[in-house]
């Protein structure tokens, strides 16, 4: 396969590129490096560019015959999306349409989309399956749902086939610590906890202790980034074989509270992790846990790194390497 990975220098995208290269695919990464890193590219061709640049997209598609496109180039911070919705609608919706339109013009028919559990909003039941009502409560989730709906329309009108993978909480790092999570600013729980463990951060904040959960803190489903990449690989192979669009929820099916994550991180690192308590954040559901039965039955996907301790261990190896690099 010859694949274009948009946003392939970012956290999930860079792990996907490594997985594809290991599989023997011919990979071109397209990234503007606004949230990604050039040194996260461990192989394949790299093109620095933005999907807002329509002429550049046409040049890239004219000069290459891609079998499919994988799209990871979205803004992902819920809080920022509430305060700066224009930024999210511009990049996550308008710029994604630029990419889809370029695919249509150049007759590239297969698309893998990085979606999110945020499209569901406040859950009506857990675990959340693909039939759960979609009612996002923040602009980030709405932008992802708009693209999913756009893909349905593009299939009917232009024959563009797609697979939407709705992540819950991506976490962990390459088991050999070659690459890992590196957001600026960092907003995800596990790397924040590990930064507190390593001394790069004074403490970790717990937002809210009065949720309707066993210990009062939010419960989330953490899925190893390499397991996500395995699911993407299965999805693109199925799309190439069947030419059928699909949507899948992706998670481990196990929920862990904020306090449980901090406790597990303390056990893995052997460090005391300072904790501060703060008010709830707007738009944080009490529990988000995935039902991934459908992708397991349909594509045979099974997570290899389902243990929370393993996820944290891999992320800790990366944090230790990153701390040395930064300092």
Would you write up a description of this structure?
With 327 residues, this protein is α/β, with parallel strands linked by helices. It folds into two domains: 2-171 and 222-250, 3-Layer(aba) Sandwich (Rossmann fold); 189-220 and 253-326, UDP-galactose 4-epimerase, domain 1 (Alpha-Beta Complex). It contains ten helices and 14 strands. A seven-stranded parallel sheet has the order 3-2-1-4-5-6-11, with helices on both faces. Strands 12-9-14 form a three-stranded mixed sheet. A two-stranded parallel sheet has the order 7-10. Strand 1, helix 1 and strand 2 form a beta-alpha-beta unit. Helix 8 crosses helix 10. The model has no long low-confidence stretch (mean pLDDT 96).
Brief overview, please?
This protein has 327 residues and is α/β, with parallel strands linked by helices.
What is the rounded distance between the termini?
A: 40 Å
Structural class: alpha/beta
CATH level 1 name of the largest domain:
Alpha Beta
Poorly predicted regions are: none
Number of strands: 14
SSE succession: EHEEHEHHEHEEHEEEHEEHEEHH
Radius of gyration: 19 Å
The CATH architecture category of the largest domain equals: 3-Layer(aba) Sandwich
The whole-number mean of residue pLDDT values reads: 96
* Number of helices in the DSSP assignment: 10
The CATH topology of the largest domain is Rossmann fold
Defining traits:
14 strands, globular, alpha/beta, 10 helices, UDP-galactose 4-epimerase, domain 1, 18% strand, 2 domains, 3-stranded mixed beta sheet, Rossmann fold, 327 residues, 7-stranded parallel beta sheet
């Amino acid at each position: 396969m010859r694949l274009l990975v948009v946003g392939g220098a970012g956290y999930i995208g860079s792990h996907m590129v490594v997985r594809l290269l290991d599989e023997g695919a011919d990979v071109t990464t397209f990234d503007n490096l606004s949230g990604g890193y050039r040194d996260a590219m461990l192989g394949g061709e790299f093109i620095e560019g933005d999907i807002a640049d329509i002429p550049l997209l046409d040049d890239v598609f004219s000069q290459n015959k891609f079998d499919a496109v994988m799209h990871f180039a979205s803004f992902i911070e819920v809080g920022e999306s509430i305060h700066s919705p224009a930024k999210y609608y511009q990049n996550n919706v308008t710029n994604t349409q630029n990419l889809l339109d370029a695919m249509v013009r150049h007759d590239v028919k297969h698309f893998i989309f990085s979606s999110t559990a945020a499209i569901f909003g406040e859950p009506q039941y857990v675990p959340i399956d693909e039939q759960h009502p979609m009612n996002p409560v923040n602009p980030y989730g709405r932008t992802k749902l708009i693209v999913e709906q756009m893909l349905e329309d593009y299939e009917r009108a232009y024959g563009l086939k797609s697979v939407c993978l709705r992540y819950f909480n991506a976490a962990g790092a390459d088991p050999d610590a070659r690459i890992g999570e590196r957001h600026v600013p960092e907003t995800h729980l596990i790397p924040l906890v590990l930064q507190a463990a390593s001394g790069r951060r004074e403490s970790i904040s717990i937002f809210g202790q009065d949720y309707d959960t066993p210990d009062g803190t939010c419960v989330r489903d953490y899925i190893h980034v390499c397991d996500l990449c395995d699911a993407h690989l299965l999805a693109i192979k199925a799309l190439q074989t069947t030419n059928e669009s699909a949507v899948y929820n992706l998670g481990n099916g196990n929920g862990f509270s904020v306090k449980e994550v901090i406790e597990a991180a303390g056990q893995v690192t052997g460090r005391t992790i300072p904790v501060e308590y703060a008010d709830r954040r707007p738009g944080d559901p009490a529990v988000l846990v995935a039902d991934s039965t459908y992708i397991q039955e349909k594509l045979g996907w099974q997570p290899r790194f389902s243990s929370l301790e393993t996820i944290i261990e891999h992320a800790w190896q990366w944090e230790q390497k990153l701390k040395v690099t930064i300092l």
